[in-house]
Amino acid sequence: MGMQGDFFQLLKEQGYQFGNPVAASTGMEIPTATTILALKYRDGVLVAGDRRATAGNMVMYDRTDKVLEIDRHSVMAIAGVPATAYEMVRVLEHSFKYYRRTQLQELSFEGKLRAVSKLLKENVAAALAGTGAVVPVFAGYDHDQGAAKIYFYDILGAEFEGVEYAVSGSGSPTIRGILHYMNTWGPQPLATLPEEQATVQALRLLASAAEFDSATGGVNRELNLYPVVKLITEAGVQTVADATLKRLYEAEVARMVQR
Amino acid sequence: MYEEPYRWVEAVGNRRQYLDEQFTQGAPVVALTYADGILLVTVSRGTPKLYEIYDRIALGGMGHPADLEKLRFSLLEMAHVEGFNRSPSDVTGARLMKYGLAPAIKQAFEEIYKAPFIVKILLAELGPKPERDAFLTINYDGTFEESRRWAGLGATPAVQAQMGRYLESQAGCEQAPLAQAFETALCAWAVGALAQTAPEPSTGESTPGSDPSEKAAGAVAATEDKAALLAHVRKTVAEKSLECVLLERKGPGSSKYRALRPDELGTLFPPAVKASTPT
To answer: Which of B184, B183, B176 lies closest to B37, judged by CA?
Structure first.
């Protein structure tokens, strides 16, 4: 029965299986998604991701959404195999709703973190077989603590708090160094940046990742394709409009690149 | 015993009489479409009677709290598994009612060796457009009804009919803003509440445990005069808590359900009710 409000358990009782390892020896290239970042800024947490999905050295798709809203106050950004990641997000989305509706209270932020970890553990076999590795960044507003928080995970489900920022995906080593430099010796710590400046930095960071990592897509101005940027504050999750991203990109990112 | 068909019919009849009595002390539930979505109203003493079932579906209940919880859980389970395996748009009030609630309630009612569910349930479903909003109500015996624009739960079919007549007389409510719809819902609720406590001339039986002076007041006010209805609401909310939830068509995210906070209720109350509401 679902009296404990555990939707994942309920699914299992109905015969649902999550994270079946598929034989990896078929030589098949599995699409992966890359470069996501989350950083704390003045009003909360900013989460951003480029939009490219690749299979081997082929670009599969340039409109992937890697920053997925799970509920009004939390998002999961995904690097790794989209098929597994989207399924995880679907399970989480339904789990949090089911918990709230059955137990008549919101699942705690810690409870949400554990739920992500639990799914990653279920997926270990698939991840090790190379067919379902997902390395997510989870960010949300913790109402008990009155603060927005960032957590990142390894493929085994261990959770780590990104106190100031977190990155994941193949383009992330590049920007991790930049983030450390900016935060330590830049004009001001990341956590004091106002919303627009934080967004500009996110766009610049993803542009840098795209510069050095073929699996990370940059901005496609002709097609009006910009990264996905979401802001999490006490009021909830809010998506930065493409028009805003375009304006900031033209003024603060492209200008520097063109020189 | 009950082996003979005649005995069985008699047993079911007894069961109806027993169940009808169970609801006379319960609070009616009113649901109606307004300009920006659907509004559900009832009063309760502690345990809530209005619940979120799925993204666009809300439940209102009358009856035994334990039975209501059990059925609420089975609806939640059905809705969420369906929404996960197919799509949230495949979770509809009609399917929940016809394949979830109705068979379970009917079976429990007719198995005369077992306890029936002491519940009446209302499902309100927000459609993509106002004209697709749907309401379903089910009686303790498994009979269900579908309606548009509004629905109500009351102790007896007669009470429900009276609430329906009142709501039917309020033309244009589906285009009304929240405050006006809220007032209409409160009045319809009072119509039901007063009709339930009023002595029924047809049966002549007195309801056990009810206060005779209250009954008399109910009989007078049941004339459906708005001032009298709101006066009854005012009297009720002084001792019980009013519950009001919305399914907001333009609400953020996929879940459209939202319970009104006490301060919001305070500002929505019509002046006639507000006067004596403790703040």
So the answer is: B176
Q: Which is the catalytic residue, given A32, A34, A54, A131?
A: A34
Contacts of A71 in chain B (CB under 8 A): 253
Write down the pLDDT at residue A169.
Answer: 95
3-state secondary structure of B220: helix
Preferred mutation among A89, A101, A103 to probe B, highest tally of B CBs within 10 A: A101
Which residue spans within B165-263 are E strands per DSSP?
Answer: 241-248, 257-259
CB spacing of A91 vs B84 below 8 angstroms: yes
Q: What is the pTM of this model?
A: 0.91
H-helix or E-strand spanning residue A54 = strand A53-55
Digit-coded pLDDT (tens) for B194-253: 999 886 554 444 444 444 444 444 444 445 688 999 999 999 999 999 999 999 999 988
Tokens linked to B177 = 């803003």
Which amino acid would we find at residue A1?
M
Per-residue pLDDT tens digits for A131-174? 889 999 999 999 999 999 999 999 999 999 999 999 999 999 99
**Nearest-angstrom CA–CA distance, B97 and B120:** 12
Q: Predicted ipTM? A: 0.90
User: Do A104 and B80 make contact, defined as CB atoms within 8 angstroms?
Assistant: no
Asked whether the beta carbons of residue B48 and residue A104 sit closer than 8 angstroms, the reply is yes
- Sequential DSSP letters for B126-183: --SSGGG-EEEEE-TTS-EEEESSEEEE-SSHHHHHHHHHHHHHSTTGGGS-HHHHHH
How many CB pairs (< 8 A) connect A and B?
39
Ramachandran assignment for A60, one of left (phi > 0), alpha (psi -120 to 50 degrees), beta (any other): alpha
Distance in angstroms between the alpha carbons of the first and the last residue of chain A = 63
